Amino acid sequence: MTTSPPPVTLAAEGGALSSVEEAINNVFTPVSDAVAGFVFAEITVFGVTFPWIVGWLVIAAAIFTAYFGVIQVRGFTTALRIVRGRHSSPDDPGEITHFQALSSAVSGTVGLGNIAGVGVAVTIGGAGATFWMILAGLLGMCTKFVECTLGVKYRDVHPDGTVSGGPMHYLRKGLAERFPGGAGKAVGKVLAAGAAAMILFFGIAGGNMFQANQTFAQLRNVTGGEEGFLGTDGAALVFGIVLALVVGAVIIGGIKSIGRVTGKLVPAMAILYVLGCLTVILFNVTAVPDAIGQIFTGAFNADSVAGGAIGALIVGFQRAAFSNEAGLGSASIAHSAVKTRRPVTEGYVALLEPFIDTVVICTMTALTIVVAQTQFWKDAQATVFAGGPRPDGVTVTSESFATVLPWFPYVLTLAVVLFAVSTIITWSYYGEKAWTYLFGKSKRSEAVYRVIFCLFTVVGSVLTLGSVLDFADAVLFLLALFNIVGLYLLAPVVKRELKEFKEYLRTKREDAEVG
Asked: Membrane-crossing residues (predicted)?
């Protein structure tokens, strides 16, 4: 997920650009504050205070887990078989393979937040936050199963073979089907239009501008900051143009091109990052048992900077919810393009996504920080405990790597760039599907959107637009309010699809035994 520390001001430090940025932020600030104030408002239950949106996401994940009989555990091996091509046919409708759909969706959730956000979570919530982060990720696997099954079930397959899916489609068509009266159709249309608008705005701002901004910031910092060659006037503009050209070259080919690129990029960047984590962990292998002990005991004791075991729980749940996007419905857009005749097969594949994003990558980051035991982390915890500001999450993670590999900040920068580019590419597709839902699907409409998207890549590199990005984060999570209501109402549809698929597998096994 792209949520992470506030973006930094780059080339807009004064002059005309600064004036433009200030004017836009002044317009968006009151709107952003109002929406964010609602979406991220905190509630207190039994003396525990937390953002209601986090509770909304985690409770839904727990309910779906119970309703579908812990499908994320029982169906894990089935999911792996489907990703490898089992139960698929070359003539299945769709555009991309199960593996490409998974890699495309993962590229939209795995981002700077997995590196920076986890650093902040472990610092504030202590090592115990990792335990609750893992638990929330495991629960979120079932939510992804539900929404991505629905994404394929109610997708539109166009005459040219392209596919459109996502919450705007299953909310509109699914609710109309489940509740044939006029009310179901009307409510579905309203929710679908709202979902499309939220996805479009976040795609352009959070999934594009923010990533471009943070990528240039990281590159500039690692090359000497304002005194380095990327600190010169116009460097951000040049970088933005180059990045826009790279993104444009990929997205012009649609989801097939995006699937091919992310199918190579996501495994590469994940392997690169996980190898770095493993290097630090192996170098501190004698500290691993103690680190694991800290994670488990810290989840249930009162040593958390955030306020004991409950503080660790809330921080862990929040990091997981903000990381894997389970419950937002956004990933179902990519999963909907899969080649399949059985919607639930992609539900199985989708449940692997939070496992990769949260259980593997976020946990590897957390374990790396805990075993490294840097002085920076200890000082940061002391500062937060004393009421000071929270640390820069990227720095927490980077310092942990530097204890073993002093040159690793350069590798981390490469990982950040790969994460950011893959996120931009995937969210360009999400935004395009929202755009065509709202404004119609045609070659001209798609071309206009792609040009606008690439222009905002350049804008994001040059301007910060903090209020715009804060607003984007808020509207994306507002999507969860509508999406999960739809998931509750449509869960019986998913259960029916699951039952039919299990019957298909049983018949297939019996035929094989007879043969």
From this structure: 50-71, 190-210, 230-253, 265-285, 348-372, 407-430, 451-469, 475-494
CA Rg, the chain, in Å?
22
SS3 220: helix
Contact between 237 and 458 (Cβ < 8 Å)? yes
Query: Which residues have CB under 8 Å from 293's CB, separation 6+?
Result: none
Q: How far is 345 from 149, CA to CA, in rounded Å?
A: 7
Q: Is 78 left (phi over 0), alpha (psi -120 to 50) or beta?
A: alpha
Burial of 197 (0-12, 13-18, 19+ CB in 10 A): middle
Query: What pLDDT, in 10s, does the model give residues 425-484?
Result: 889 999 999 999 999 989 899 999 999 999 999 888 887 777 777 787 788 888 888 899
* Residue 125, token pair as written in the block: 């919530």
Cβ pair 312, 46 in contact under 8 A: no
* Angle 129-358-5 from CA coordinates, rounded to 5°: 70
Here the tokens at position 335 are 């999963």
Instruction: Give the pair of three-digit tokens for residue 114.
Output: 């997995």
Helix, strand and coil content of the chain, in percent to the nearest 5, comes to: 75, 5, 20
- How far does CA 342 lie from the centroid of its chain? 25
Domain boundaries along the sequence of the chain: 15-494
pLDDT, one tens digit per residue, over 133-186 is 888 889 999 999 999 999 999 999 888 888 889 999 999 999 999 988 788 889
Predicted pLDDT at 113: 63
Token pair in block for residue 503: 């019957």
Strand pairing partners for 338? 96
Burial class (CB in 10 A: 0-12, 13-18, 19+), 227: exposed
* Rounded distance between C-alpha atoms, residue 63 and residue 66, angstroms: 5
**Tell me, what DSSP letter sits at residue 338?**
B
Written out in words, the top-level CATH class of the domain with range 15-494 is mainly alpha
pLDDT in tens, 225-244: 666 666 666 788 888 899 99
Only one residue has tokens 């350069």, namely 410
Q: Please, are residues 94 and 163 in contact by the beta-carbon 8 Å criterion?
A: yes
pLDDT over threshold 70, residue 374: no
Answer yes or no: are the C-beta atoms of 135 and 313 closer than 8 Å: no
